[in-house]
Specification:
Length: about 210
């Protein structure tokens, strides 16, 4: 892949999402393209503490400067989406007029609205699932109604997967009333998945051959 190919990578700003996408970015850069890792203001200091020579780092606002520790999960998610949507669009527009305009946006699956921004500004979009294919398959079936909640019986059967006990399922699904905003958030990852140009998963074929 040519150095002139510029790829933006933006993770959701929590550790379990940052690390897989950061390692992916470094590996991607080793293949030749120019890679810019886009991080948000709430975790910028932790990213800057790790010097990275193979990739570029850009910081955009996620509204954390205006937020507070007492806001609900729903309020946080709305604020995050509003601010990052605006700042990400500005960043892409800035790079579009540079020597290396970006061609692809690799975005965390927890930010499905980033695909709309990419397509509106002329970029290809690739969603990146930081969890295993098995977990995403469960969310996919739940999103499309194949997993009925609340659960009835001790186990659940899903295509291409062994029978799963209730304790094997993500906790968001087992107690759907406990974190309704977060449940909606994880299921919404699949809302526009078929519109993405590529679907990337944090796994390998031999580990999840049947699910993949």
């Amino acid at each position: 892949m040519e150095r002139e190919t510029h790829i933006l990578v933006i993770p959701y700003p929590v550790q379990g999402h940052i690390n897989p996408m950061l390692q992916f970015s470094k590996r991607l850069a080793s293949k030749g393209p120019r890679v810019t890792f886009v991080t948000t203001s709430s975790i910028s200091e932790s990213i800057q503490a790790h010097a990275m020579h193979s990739i570029n780092v850009e910081i955009i606002s996620d509204g954390s400067e205006e937020g507070n520790n007492l806001e609900s999960n729903e309020a946080y998610l709305k604020r995050f989406q509003l601010n990052v949507s605006q700042s990400l669009a500005k960043l892409i527009e800035k790079h579009n007029s540079s020597q290396y305009p970006p061609k692809i946006l690799v975005y965390d699956s927890g930010m499905p609205w980033a695909l709309n921004i990419a397509h509106q500004l002329g970029l290809y979009g690739a969603t990146f699932f930081t969890q295993s294919c098995a977990v995403k398959a469960i969310y996919y079936h739940a999103h499309h109604g194949a997993v009925r909640m609340p659960f009835e019986g001790p186990s659940v059967s899903l295509p291409s997967m062994p029978s799963l006990g209730i304790d094997d399922l993500p906790s968001f699904l087992c107690d759907e009333g406990k974190y309704p905003a977060l449940l909606n958030h994880v299921l919404n990852q699949l809302s526009n998945i078929l519109e993405a140009n590529w679907i990337l998963c944090n796994t390998f074929d031999q580990l999840e051959y049947e699910v993949g």
